[in-house]
């Protein structure tokens, strides 16, 4: 029996077909997002801060578009502007109270613009949700000495959790995690992602400690924090899925080819950013009480 013919080499036509496919667009845009996120994180400064100010503004716009206030564009525009301005103020001045004041002014504007109580509450919730995306990465990156490590830890936990949850869920299958909200997610995917996110977070900190750019925090403690962040990130993903299901849409937007909206890419990161933001607040309170 003759041996099977080897597959033909890739041709420009097959490459072009891949690039024009959904998977191709998703792959290329995913690579571009990773390069952009890591590049600006490494560079720091205004480039990084403006990226997250823009991300926060877009998240706020998409949130309003998924809410009962979707037919009130002034709320989306006002909330997005408030988040962006607050993030830029924090970046330029490093003054958190001033940034929070800008958010408070924006919240007052949304309360005045909303047509009814429901739309006002949804818009205000979107403002708070987006503020986590717009402000926490900026504040974390500005931490002396360890800012880059914190950001890389966040990226590592979120990305490795997402990748491992996808592949372990597809490989192992099993009971669904929350079928009424996200029919494809499984418990095997959840625990696979949890293990990978925990390991990735510990690895980032261990490498940073090895190079002397991170405090010598016990790795078991980093493991606990990474596992908590991984679990919260997966819950953040589920929460956004529930919001989209409520709105009757598949994606939060169409701005990222193959990936949907900005919220679709940052739902897990949002939950981890919230955890980091709470840590920053606790740290600030402890330092203030020690003075």
TrEMBL record:
| Main localization of the protein described in the UniProt heading | membrane
Q: How does it sit in the membrane?
A: Multi-pass membrane protein
Instruction: Work out whether the entry's keyword set contains Transmembrane helix.
Output: yes
Which Pfam families does the record associate with it?
CTP_transf_1
Supply the InterPro entries for this chain. Answer: PC_trans
* Pathway terms, separated by semicolons: Phospholipid metabolism; CDP-diacylglycerol biosynthesis; CDP-diacylglycerol from sn-glycerol 3-phosphate: step 3/3; Lipid metabolism
Q: According to the UniProt entry, what is the EC number of this protein? A: 2.7.7.41
Q: Where would you find the membrane-spanning parts of this chain?
A: 31-60, 72-90, 96-114, 121-140, 146-167, 187-211, 268-290
> What's the catalysed reaction?
a 1,2-diacyl-sn-glycero-3-phosphate + CTP + H(+) = a CDP-1,2-diacyl-sn-glycerol + diphosphate
Q: Which family does it belong to?
A: Belongs to the CDS family.
Q: What is this protein called?
A: Phosphatidate cytidylyltransferase
Species this chain originates from: Chelatococcus composti
């Amino acid at each position: 029996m003759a041996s099977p013919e080897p597959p033909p080499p890739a041709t420009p036509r097959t490459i072009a077909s891949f690039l024009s496919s959904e998977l191709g667009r998703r792959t290329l845009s995913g690579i571009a997002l990773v390069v952009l996120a890591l590049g600006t994180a490494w560079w720091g400064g205004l480039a990084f801060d403006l990226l997250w100010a823009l991300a926060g503004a877009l998240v706020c716009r998409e949130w309003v578009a998924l809410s009962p206030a979707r037919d009130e564009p002034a709320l989306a525009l006002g909330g997005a502007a408030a988040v962006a301005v607050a993030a830029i103020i924090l970046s330029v001045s490093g003054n958190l109270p001033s940034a929070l004041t800008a958010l408070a002014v924006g919240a007052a504007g949304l309360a005045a613009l909303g047509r009814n109580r429901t739309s006002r509450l949804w818009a205000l919730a979107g403002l708070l949700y987006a503020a986590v995306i717009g402000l926490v990465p900026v504040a974390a990156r500005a931490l002396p000495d360890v800012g880059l490590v914190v950001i890389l830890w966040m990226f590592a936990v979120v990305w490795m959790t997402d990748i491992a949850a996808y592949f372990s869920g597809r490989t192992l299958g099993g009971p669904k995690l929350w079928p009424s909200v996200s029919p494809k997610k499984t418990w095997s995917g959840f625990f696979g992602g949890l293990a990978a996110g925990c390991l990735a977070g510990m690895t980032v900190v261990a490498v940073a400690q090895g190079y002397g750019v991170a405090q010598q925090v016990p790795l078991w403690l980093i493991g606990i924090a990474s596992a908590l962040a991984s679990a919260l990130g997966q819950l953040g993903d589920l929460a956004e899925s529930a919001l989209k299901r409520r709105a009757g849409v598949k994606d939060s937007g169409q701005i990222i080819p193959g990936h949907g909206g900005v919220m679709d890419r940052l739902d897990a990161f949002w939950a981890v950013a919230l955890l980091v933001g709470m840590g920053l607040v606790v740290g600030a309170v402890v330092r203030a009480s020690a003075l």
